[in-house]
Amino acid sequence: MARDGVLLAAIDVAKTFAAQGGADATVALAGVSLEVRAGEFVAIVGPSGSGKSTLLYCLSGLESPTSGRVEISGTDITALSARGVASLRRERVGFVFQSYNLIPSLTVRENVALPARLSRRPLDGATVDATLGRVGLGGFAGAYPGTLSGGQQQRVAIARVLASAPDLVFADEPTGALDTAAGAVVLDLLREAAGDGRAVVMVTHDLEAAARADRVLVIRDGALHRELARPTPREIFEAVERSATGPVA
Amino acid sequence: MVGSARIWLGSFIVVAIAAFAATVPAALTETGLRDGTLVGLALVAIAGTVTVLSGVATVVVVGTVMRLTVALRRRSYALWQTVGVSPARVRSIVVAQLLVVAVVGAVLGSAVGALVVPGAVESALQGSNGVDTLSIVVSPIGAAVAAAVVVVVALLAGDGAARRAARTSPLEVLRASPAARRARWWPRWVLAALLLAVVVQMLSGLAGSAAAGSGAAAILIGPLLVAVVAVLGPVVFPRVMRQWTALVPAAASASWYVARANTLYAVDRSSTVVASLLVAVAVPGTFAAGQGTLAGALAILAGTDDPGADTGGTTLLVLGGPVLLAAAGAAAATVMSSGARAREGALLSAAGAPPGFGVATALWEAVIQLGTAALLAVAVVAVTVGAESLVLSTVAPGTAPDFAVGTVVTVFALSSVGILLATLVPTLATRNQVIPRALSGE
């Protein structure tokens, strides 16, 4: 692990999308720096187009920043080859997406065991079944994702993360497509995933969901504006509102 | 947009090639009937063989590609239903789209055929006894009939697929549920039974006609058996794929494991490729095997050692169109499905798959389809020549089956190269895709 339990560090990360079809180049991130420590559940909030999803993709190695550095467990992922980034993602990072992104041709059990299979680490059936039991899907191991509800598919995605026990879990609007009850279950599971020296970074526009986190980072126009510790939904709302006019923190 | 264009272009090209190939029997028939002499009738006889082979290829390849076209666009049709378009309207819109593609493709293909085929056929017939003196013609009416037949085949197949697409629950499609099998099965079983009855009838008459020095049915029995297997493809292909691929341990390779799951899950697209490959390999294979076995029997009956040589030009004339169509169908189906594979590759990358994993998975999928088609082709060739040699032995004892190994291996090797290229090129083009954008770009 890196210094002082820091699992994730972003140093002056910037991302600019090239001009396309007559439109000007877009600055999505304008030099973001942050740290996430082991055991933390961190939420990133901000209005649509603020750059929060781009930040998550840059932090997780799914997208390359234009400049700056991202370190996961002390490893600078911006200096790694594509194969190195993939290997690090496989070994240390888990993802939960808004649209679940399960492999439709694999059963629930096969989806949960997939990261281990890709890493050539043996994952016995009992472990997979126990993980499915933890997310309340013990009876769905042989089902295909397309036959499950949205909430169930999201729980499969979380079971996939829990089974491979990565250092860092990135969640992109994990409750965005779910009703309140299903969303609450997903947030409880993410909270659980942040235990045992691991951490969760979640992007969300749902202020109630963000209020479940240990820390909330408010982003606007590609820059971090505020950082709140265990805030209420009201406090997050006011911070987002103020960020529209206030100076960068 | 690019994905839709790829799908429509693929079906357009297949229809155009089918219409082009259909002008060959049209030209032979028209020229033979106009001539009216014995030489002309000989040409009509050749046209009959070409018509059977082209018919098998057209029904199998155009039919499966049209069904794949609708299957790959099921998500769009489901989205239409979610904004209030009725199932009946969806069906009529789908059929109208297919009609436009089929008519434009068929007109273009038959027009090119009308220009190119007469000269090509005359070249192919050079050196063939008598018929090489005829001037080959194809009139606008002949070309129009060829185009119309292809359009009808395309619409019959497309309408069934459109009906199923319209009946499927939009939510089921949008959730990417496993494809429900709602096709009507009885027409397939009836057609397969009818084709089998024809095969049995031809086999029963084979010994007598061989004894009389003919036995031309021997070269058509195999292609008709290919049609039987292709007609029952949705039942046969997944079972054969599942059985033989189970021989490879799942732990051997993660990319193989995922490819096998994809191939068995996306059975619409894998069956389309297998059907076309089966026609591409087994039609020339059974044709050559039947020809060789019959030639052996006729040589025994004539008391000579030389089974006689076939002119390559006639074989090219008979097989060229169907093989070209089948190979194009397999390649087109592979390219048409590449959009779906790109998204699957992004999903795997998001799950931590290393670079190149998507390419390896796509190649394994191609290997599974090629292996399945090869197994079925070998089985059909073996059954064909086994049955023919048994029947012919009753009048020509000692008739040995000719398995036409050279033809089967050559056509399979060429088809493999084509399929692997059709798999690799679009897959490599998406190799450096940015994962979040690939996942959001449905």
Low-confidence stretches of chain B: none
Shape of chain A: globular
Query: How would you spell out the order of helices and strands of chain B?
Result: HHHHHHHHHHHHHHHH
Number of alpha- plus pi-helical segments of chain A: 8
In what range is the share of β-strand residues of chain A?
Answer: 25-35%
Low-confidence stretches of chain A: none
> What's the number of extended β-strand segments of chain B?
0
Q: Which shape of chain B, going by the Cα principal axes?
A: globular
The number of helices of chain B is 16
Secondary structure: helix percent of chain B:
over 70%
Topology:
The complex is a heterodimer of chains A (249) and B (442).
Chain A: E1 6-17, E2 26-37, E3 41-45, H1 52-60, E4 67-72, E5 75-76, H2 82-92, E6 93-96, H3 108-118, H4 125-134, H5 150-164, E7 168-172, H6 180-193, E8 199-203, H7 207-210, E9 215-220, E10 223-229, H8 233-243
Parallel strand pairs in A: 3-8, 3-9, 6-7, 7-8
Antiparallel strand pairs in A: 1-2, 1-4, 4-5, 9-10
Chain B: H1 2-35, H2 38-72, H3 74-82, H4 87-125, H5 140-167, H6 170-174, H7 186-211, H8 218-231, H9 233-245, H10 254-265, H11 267-302, H12 312-336, H13 338-350, H14 357-393, H15 405-429, H16 435-440
Helix pairs in contact in B: 1-2, 1-4, 1-5, 1-12, 2-5, 2-8, 2-11, 2-12, 4-5, 4-12, 7-8, 7-14, 8-11, 8-14, 9-11, 9-14, 10-14, 11-12, 11-14, 11-15, 12-15, 13-14, 14-15
Could you explain the architecture of this structure?
The complex is a heterodimer of chains A (249) and B (442). Chain A is α/β, with parallel strands linked by helices. Chain A contains 8 helices and 10 strands. Chain A has helices at residues 52-60, 82-92, 108-118, 125-134, 150-164, 180-193, 207-210, 233-243; strands at residues 6-17, 26-37, 41-45, 67-72, 75-76, 93-96, 168-172, 199-203, 215-220, 223-229. In chain A, the strands form 2 sheets. A 6-stranded mixed β-sheet of chain A has the order 6-7-8-3-9-10, sandwiched between helices. Chain A has a 4-stranded antiparallel β-sheet with strand order 2-1-4-5, covered by helices on one side. In chain A, helix 3 (108-118) packs parallel to helix 5 (150-164) and helix 4 crosses helix 5 (150-164). Chain A is globular and about 50 Å long. Chain A starts with 5 loop residues before the first strand and ends in a 6-residue tail after the last helix. With 442 residues, chain B is mostly helical. The model of chain B has no long low-confidence stretch (mean pLDDT 88). Classes of the chains: A alpha/beta (249), B mainly alpha (442). The A-B interface holds A 53, 57, 62-63, 82-83, 86-87, 89-91, 93, 95, 97, 99, 101-106, 110, 114-115, 117-120, 144-147, 160 and B 172, 175-178, 254, 257-258, 261-262, 264-266, 344, 347-355, 357, 434-436, 439-440.
